[in-house]
Amino acid sequence: MEKSSKTPMTQSAAARIQSAEAKVNGGKVAKDGFAARAQSTADRNTSNQSNKR
Fold first, then answer.
1. CB 14 within 8 A of CB 37
2. Overall pTM surpassing 0.90 (yes/no)
3. By C-alpha distance, which of 16, 13, 5, 10 is closest to 43?
4. In this model, does residue 1 exceed pLDDT 60?
5. 30 phi-psi bin (left φ>0, alpha ψ -120 to 50, beta other)
6. Whether pLDDT at 14 is above 90
7. What average pLDDT does the chain have?
8. Burial of 36 (0-12, 13-18, 19+ CB in 10 A)
9. Residue 45: which residues within 8 A CB-CB, separation 6 or more?
10. What is the 3-state secondary structure (H, E, C) of the chain?
11. Cβ distance 29 to 14 under 8 Å?
12. Mean pLDDT throughout 12-27?
């Protein structure tokens, strides 16, 4: 079995996702969409990194 590497969601990656979704949807981002979940995860990851210092 091959081990998969897991890359954490970053703020910049979430911003790219949100930007792409907004461009497709006329500037709107769904509050329950993938971009919102990506941003939430990035916020959590950033918070977790700050707590480890």
1. no
2. no
3. 10
4. no
5. beta
6. yes
7. 89
8. middle
9. 8, 9, 10
10. CCCCCCCCCCHHHHHHHHHHHHHHCCCCCCCCCHHHHHHHHHHHHHHHHHHHC
11. no
12. 97
Give the span between the Cα atoms of 27 and 7, in whole angstroms: 28
Identify the CA nearest to 14 among candidates 41, 48, 47, 32: 41
Structure tokens at 17: 């996702």
Per mean pLDDT, which range of 5-9, 15-19, 39-43 is the poorest? 5-9
CA angle 9, 13, 19 (to 5 degrees): 135
Cα distance between residue 11 and residue 17, in whole Å = 10
Neighbours of 38 (CB within 10 A): 20
